[in-house]
Design brief:
mainly alpha; 66% helix; 1% strand; single chain; two-stranded antiparallel sheet
Length: 422
């Protein structure tokens, strides 16, 4: 089949199913990797851990390899970026004005930042809230987030007021939990750290930057590529101390780490956004074959750039070195190109149906998997982690937990009306 005879995806479907599958699989892999850690599964192969944890005797700055666990956050950033052009196209089709779209982006960013700060506070070390256990604080915090950001069905009258009351209860819970929050470090006591963005917060910043790039260059792939290169230079400049000379940036840098937010994370999200641009009506790639070639080219250039920079900065997740960032992009491009070919081009979709609950309601399994362990502590069931927690038996147990949380429970709760939306 020649390229000219292949149908345009825009002409046949408005939904790119491979993006959903990539998102769902990434979420399930994240639940699996995190549960291995939170459940304390012992004797796990090193390739199932962060590289920095697999070899604790090696100083973090000397680590020169990554594992698939180190790539999970990057895969999220990549697919968040890839979804931006399609989401913006859908909003334009619904009649949203540019100002309405901008407002949606800002609200979504703030929502992710708030979620990131609270989940980061939960994951901090030596947390001892006033009058409540850390486990109970974590359970109430996650329930509060879910009450606020649940997508309640359209309603009028008393039912609508009831939904508003649930959001208010969630907001009041978060305010109260922020007031009683305490953590200890080096003998000092601190409250909430509003600069600890954690995973969701960092995704929020990267999403905002990628949306800005899309607003400027949504019809110009070269402009987006130039921004990616510039963001990589931001990381290098920050690593080399260039920003220290600009004293007026010191306050800003204490709140937002420029080398990460405007550097490594923004690069991944923007490259993902470039992949998403290939599915726009005015894309430089009009056929599936051309799209795959573009995705392969983006991945190849990222790999070669990472290869050239590895002798200088190494390959390590701690610090998000340029090679780690670029290899992450290259691997995401390779995986996504295969999924796109298999699912959207060849039409083999049914095998991936198990990932769709997590794909279409991704915040739900994210919160659920963080909820299960503090909930077991609060209810006195933590002793369950003492069983089936060694080696491949423990890994099989974690796979079962991942399936139950990410597939079964997410599907059942979604059907019951628990749909978390930003």
């Amino acid at each position: 089949m020649n390229g000219s005879s292949e149908p345009s995806l825009a002409a046949t479907s408005n939904r790119v199913h491979s993006i959903d599958v990539f998102r769902g699989l990434t979420m399930l892999v994240m639940v699996f990797a995190n549960d291995l850690d939170m459940a304390g599964i012992r004797d796990v192969p090193n390739w199932m851990k962060h590289a920095s944890l697999a070899m604790p005797s090696i100083p973090r700055h000397l680590i020169d390899h990554i594992t698939f666990v180190d790539m999970i956050a990057g895969a999220f950033l990549f697919i968040v970026g890839a979804a931006i052009p399609l989401a913006m196209r859908n909003r334009r089709m619904k009649g949203d004005t540019p100002w309405q779209a901008t407002g949606h982006v800002l609200i979504r960013t703030v929502s992710l930042l708030v979620m990131g700060v609270f989940t980061g506070a939960m994951r901090a070390k030596q947390v001892d809230p006033i009058g409540i256990s850390h486990a109970a604080w974590s359970v109430l915090m996650l329930l509060g987030l879910m009450l606020i950001w649940n997508n309640y069905p359209a309603a009028t009258g008393g039912r609508s007021g009831g939904y508003m009351a649930l959001r208010f209860v969630g907001l009041a819970m978060l305010v109260g939990l922020a007031i009683v929050y305490r953590r200890h470090s080096d003998g000092a006591v601190f409250g909430m750290d509003w600069r600890n963005w954690f995973v969701l917060g960092m995704i929020g910043w990267a999403y905002l930057v990628a949306c800005g790039v899309y607003a400027l260059f949504r019809r110009q792939m070269a402009g987006a590529a130039a921004c990616s290169a510039l963001f990589l230079l931001f990381w290098i400049a920050d690593h080399e101390g260039v920003f220290k000379a600009f004293h007026w940036l010191n306050g800003f840098r204490r709140v937002i780490p420029l080398g990460v937010v405007l550097g490594s994370h923004a690069v991944i999200a923007t490259c993902g956004m470039m992949v998403g641009m290939l599915f726009a009506e005015d894309s430089p790639a009009a056929t599936p074959r051309q799209r795959i070639r573009w995705i392969a080219a983006i991945g190849l250039f990222a790999f070669l750039a990472g290869l050239l920079l590895r002798p200088v900065y190494g390959l390590a997740k701690p610090g998000n070195t340029p090679t780690c960032t670029l290899y992450n992009i290259a691997i995401c491009c390779a995986v996504y190109a295969f999924l796109y070919w298999l699912i959207d081009v060849r039409g083999h979709r049914r095998w991936a149906d198990f990932s769709l609950p997590a794909a279409r309601n991704p915040l739900l399994p994210y919160f659920l998997h963080y909820l299960i362990h503090p909930l077991s502590l609060a209810l006195g069931f933590a002793w369950l982690n003492e069983y089936l927690n060694v080696g491949w038996v423990g890994i099989a147990r974690t796979l079962s937990v991942t399936f139950l949380i990410g597939v079964v429970l997410t599907h059942l709760l979604t059907r019951a009306g628990v749909r978390l939306r930003l």
